[in-house]
Amino acid sequence: MPIGSDRAQWGCARDLIVGDVVDLELAGVDLTQDEIGPAGTNAQVLGTDQFPAPAAQTWSAVAIALGQGLSSLESIKLWLIFAGGVVGVLLTFAPVLLPKYQEYLPSASAFGLAWVFPWYHGLLFFLGALIALLLKRRKPKLAEEFTLPVASGVVAGGSLMGVVLVFWANGGSILNKLLGG
User: Fold this and answer.
1) For a Cys staple, 68 with which of 15, 17, 72, 160, CB 3.0–4.6 Å?
2) pLDDT confidence of residue 7
3) What is the dihedral of CA 111, 114, 120, 124, to 10 degrees?
4) Do 109 and 55 form a contact (C-beta atoms < 8 A)?
């Protein structure tokens, strides 16, 4: 199925929402939050609501697990890693095993992303897919030309604004350290 198709857009958005619902249920045992040590004086906002940096937190947790061994993780986290692996394998093979139900099956990658990102990112993806679908139905040529560039710009702009806000909040101390003050 082509990436720009209605089914692909709605499937990805639906999968992110479903994954977020599951993630909210497991929020008390979130590996990406619990295994991160102090971020240091220059990056204290990383991992907070102000600057969540989910990918950085995830890779930091992976580095801790690889560096200190799986025995350094709590048993519930080991079970969740195992469960996530099983779900990922099942979701990957489900379309092959159940081709009749393929359009109803969630995407393994979208489902996994929803477990890494905060819940509101999935909601924003869903709203973006809804806007893209409505635009595609009303003005297909306009949607074909602008949906991907505008969506990419929104994502990049959001990331850049996050960095700008960190500098805005901590600019004085950053400048002092850069200028040797």
Assistant:
1) 72
2) 54
3) -50
4) no
